[in-house]
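Lab notebook, bench 4. Still working through the backlog of constructs that have no structural model yet. Next entry is a single chain of 358 residues. Request: give me the structure tokens for it.
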Amino acid sequence: MIESFKINNLTAFKELEWKDVKPLNVIIGLNDTGKTHLLKLLYAFVKSLEEWRRGGVDKPANWSDSLSLKLRTVFLPHTETLGALVRRGESKLALSARFMNENFYFSFGKDTTFKISDYSPERFTENRTKEPDAGNPKYLFFPPKEVLTVHRALYAQQQEVGYQAWGFDATYHDLIAALINPGVSGRTKKVVQYSQRELVKVLKGMFILDNQDFVFKPEGSNEKLRMWQTPEGLKKLGHLSLLIHNRSILKGSILFFDEPEANLHPKAVRIIAKILFGFAQEGVQIFLATHSYFIIKQIEMLARENKVSVSFCSLNKSVNGIEARFSDLCEELPENPIIDESVALFQDDIELEFKRPT
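Model written out:
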């Protein structure tokens, strides 16, 4: 689990220090306040470690090389160099983090192309012990759109032309790779059982990989619905169901969600909020960026009901870049732009009512 981290000079961020990261962490902010960049930096950091530890003949030998590759394929900077990620006018980007009971650090300058030479711990070199892929918790990023419908075309095209020409960053490729993974059979103590049961209740059926295509089988029926026949909300929940079933989501996994509410009815949004809250109680760490009042209110209610701390980060623009305010949803739902806009809409409605001729 990520316990704490500090970022310096990432794109719009001058400095962001998150001292007390929780199992469930909610991030809000207006458009262009860096929510996605924050998620992507953390994801690239932990995913590079996962991939380096897993190894493989075509994988970088050193963690720093794995990290460099991951940052470039996740962010897809227009210059294809790491230096493009450094805040304008600053000399270097840095991340220090406490992760898995160990301290990590890396930095690189504005003129850096590919090589990260300043990092620790330095023991993460080619003398690694390769870990098997199956049965280990994975770190996954969920972009706003579902990928079940077009996974074959997207995956095949990326393999053929590479990330830059493909136009989709590595988060899409990684998610599809996890979804089509056959997984590991048998039982494991790391399974998130409660969340799987809740998903089955909500879905009223199950998603399966059938002859290289995803299909949905309604409960009590032999019918197989293709993805174009399946509602968007079910497919987003289907991501989670498939990844639990193939043991990609286990206790110890870290999941990053970028606007999970996109294209969903508020009822489905509340269901997703409940599922993610359940994940966090079962040992899965969640980072969630959202614009949805329904998500933050539902999570706040669950936090208060269960007396569970949920970290709430509100990002705001200032003359010094993006600044963060932190609070605990178990204690209160603080003032924030999402609530402010809801109140403003209500006030506009009242004023309109008073203007109506009598």
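Notes after review: The longest strand covers residues 2-10. Residues 35-54 form the longest helix (20 residues). Flag for follow-up if needed.
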